[in-house]
Amino acid sequence: MSASELAAAVKESLEVDAESFQERAAAEAEWLKDEVREGTFDNSEAIVGLELELYAVDDRTDALQRVPRPLLERIGFEKELGLHNAEMQTSPQPLNSFGLEAQERELQANLVPAQERTRAENIRLVSDGMWTVPPTGETARQYLSDSIEQDGVRIGTNMSDAVRYHAMANTDYPSGLCLDAPNVTLEADTVMPESLITSIQPHVQVPHAPDLPEYFAYALRIAGPLLAMGVNSPFFPPDLYDDVPDATILDDAWMEHRISVFESVLNATDESVPKKVCFPSDFESVEDAIDSIVADETIVPMEVTHGERFDDQFAHVRHKHGSYWRWIRPVFDGATRSQANARIEFRPLPGQPTIRDAIAFQAVFAGLLESLVRREHPVRTLDWKTAEANFYNAMRDGLDAHLTWITGGGETTDLDEIYGELFEHARDGLELHGLSTEAARRYIRPLRERVDRRITPARWKFGYVRRRVQEGVPLAEAIWGMQAQYIREQEATLVDGDFTDWLS
């Protein structure tokens, strides 16, 4: 799509009447609530799925690489925000031994030929939380902030040609379009700085849609402990840092900067404007969840058509999902009536070092939801503000974070007690769905080892950079050296290994 064609499409999208769009979404929501009450969105069993985002690098230099659109189509991946991004989605499968194995095999089956095809063009796909080496001959600041004005429309130079991405920079909604993290400064004209980050997003379809609020409440309360194990983004591209001593940057680094990037780019800087990217509140009912989605401000209302899919009957509500950026969120969709589902998407986790690590999080998340709900675990009574504090503490400090949990014996902050119980309930939940004890423990093991060793991908990165800086290496060189080592380690383990293989 040419710049003029893209600008015309953005202009057309901005002409949609927001009030009329909202009225249609509200009407669809009432229909949706009726369908939920009638059981249309119930499943005979729990169903799991996963989204996996990657970024591309030059196979010879490790520098960020734009992926040619024809190549992206040939490997069957979906485009994401930046020209360097690619996304995979697994087919939803039942939560059982065969379903989890199918999830892992599908990722392997798609990623292996994709890597072979991209390598023929000297491109490697990387699973990571944040890239740090900009394209050759460019700075990260240039790459993230480059834009042009075409026919009165601001267009990000390095963004995919999806209309909604560009429309966000041309609306009245006051997104920050900046980075707000310790010792980092960047302001942009588009949402392109968000393309720094990549994630995995496991999701679980709940068997009985009206029970979604109960599952959701537990998802909020396990968010901090899960994020603490998954942190993988302690460093930005070096040229984004302020002119401060290297030691200051190391002392102030958070273990998971992905959270702050998403929030500072898309939330309004005006504190009187409700946050769109945030740790969400509990829901009293499934109707409240639907109302929350509909009430959320739509940054880019667009003309949506009602096609032949079942969920086209609530197409405006589905569109609103696209900017309902909660770290854990409810989703309602389904191509056919029989596929209609209510699910919980778990969105805080950064990209992980290997496929097996990603599947471990998927299995543990799903197993926990099953067991905690079924056993009516007392952590449900953990105060929401404490759950929120757990989440942001985990963002900053990973497994060194102050976390609060509730057991049958009361409140605890002991890390071994927290994770001992968490892993036991993940095992229990998986066994409730037919996995053997041995199989359940095999899925859990990569994360249990992280806790036992007190090591996360972020801490691995941080330790590498700190050692090099202490040896007198400039911070930028240390970060790029770490990134090169990360990519080399991943090369041997991405498809058939896990992060703990890096530690031997």
Automatic annotation (TrEMBL):
Residue ranges that the Swiss-Prot or TrEMBL entry lists as coiled coil: none
Gene3D superfamilies: 3.30.590.20
Top-rank lineage group of the source organism: Archaea
Pfam families per UniProt: GCS2 (PF04107)
InterPro entries referenced in this protein's UniProt entry, alphabetically: GCL_type2/YbdK_subfam (IPR050141), GCS2 (IPR006336), Gln_synth/guanido_kin_cat_dom (IPR014746), UCP012666 (IPR016602)
GO terms, molecular function: ligase activity, forming carbon-nitrogen bonds
PANTHER family: CONSERVED PROTEIN, GLUTAMATE--CYSTEINE LIGASE 2-RELATED
Protein name in UniProt: Glutamate--cysteine ligase
Organism encoding this protein: Halapricum salinum
Organism lineage: Archaea, Methanobacteriati, Methanobacteriota, Stenosarchaea group, Halobacteria
